[in-house]
Here is the input.
Amino acid sequence: MEQLLKLLKDLEQVTFQDISEIPEDHQHIVIDQIEELQDKLRKLTKEKPH
Here is the structure.
């Protein structure tokens, strides 16, 4: 669980500057996937005791 929490924290640190370095036609896909993964990780970490 510790690594999943670290991953969530790392994902939360991704900036618009980071995203802007991705080809423009892929930016929205990457953003959507990051947000989806963050949501799933948050849900998982709330369900599991730390």
